Amino acid sequence: MPENTNAIIEVRSLCKRVKDATGELTILENIELDVIAGTSVAIVGASGSGKSTLLGLLAGLDNATSGSVRLLGRELSTLSEDERARLRNGSIGFVFQSFQLMPHLTALENVRLPLELQGGIEAHEATTRAQALLEQVGLSKRTQHYPKLLSGGEQQRVALARAFVTRPAILFADEPTGSLDAATGRAVIDLMFELNAAQGATLILVTHDTELAHRCSRTVTIEAGRVLGRSPPGA
Ligand SMILES: Nc1ncnc2c1ncn2[C@@H]1O[C@H](COP(=O)(O)OP(=O)(O)OP(=O)(O)O)[C@@H](O)[C@H]1O
Ligand SMILES: [Mg+2]
Q: What is the number of the ligand 1 atom nearest to the C-alpha of 208?
């Protein structure tokens, strides 16, 4: 039985170590974290503290060295690569710090891709939804552009639209406003909190943006691979 039945994410004694030239490097150590469904969490901390590594582990994009992550009631370490991919496609949106758009696909095709992978949706409906999201992030005039022809901020917004298009239960975003000017950043923040409010989506956001952190239900500070202090898991 999960310890906390409202938790959409439960992390216990999570460690991530990698081998490097000098031996073993500990990136994350004994992370404990519960996230209640429908809340928003800002993960903050200095550069190199382990925030992106933690986000990747929570979303099942990376394997832990030890400890456990229970995501939507599923213990990630017990799932095969395919099962994890299905869980992600069905319930998770992820905005990478480096965007990771498909270079050979247009903005519209990038945003439509998760819907195609999910299946069960007609092509024109997928296009309509992708187009609507690109409009919401202010890119209606860039739908046919390939990523390399887009500015950093534009790529970031395409990545956000792609993460939103499946209406995920959990949105993970790594510095989603990092490449945006203040006005565009605010629009993107509003969009994320609309998803949070309208669909009860849980937001897990890595950010250096104090305005964004303040709008979250809760802030978790990472320092040198550990969660600093204790904070309540709820809103
Ligand atoms: N695969 C790896 N091999 C070796 N070191 C790694 C690996 N992945 C991450 N690191 C190291 O782990 C630390 C944490 O990296 P991470 O990317 O999680 O930091 P971060 O908090 O997201 O930083 P930033 O704010 O700069 O994005 C860094 O010192 C990084 O160099
Ligand atoms: Mg990072």
A: 25
Alpha-carbon span 165 to 31, nearest angstrom: 30
Instruction: Assess whether pLDDT exceeds 80 at residue 231.
Output: no
User: Relative to the CA of 175, which ligand 1 atom is closest?
Assistant: 27
Question: Per the domain annotation, does 101 fall within a domain?
Answer: yes
How far apart CA 178 and CA 166 sit, in angstroms, is 23
Say if pTM beats, i.e. exceeds, 0.90: yes
Residue 119 is assigned to a structural domain of this protein? yes
Domain hosting residue 105, numbered range: 7-227
**Nearest Cα residue to atom 18 of ligand 1:** 50
CATH classification at residue 59: 3.40.50.300
Q: Is 95 contained in some domain? A: yes
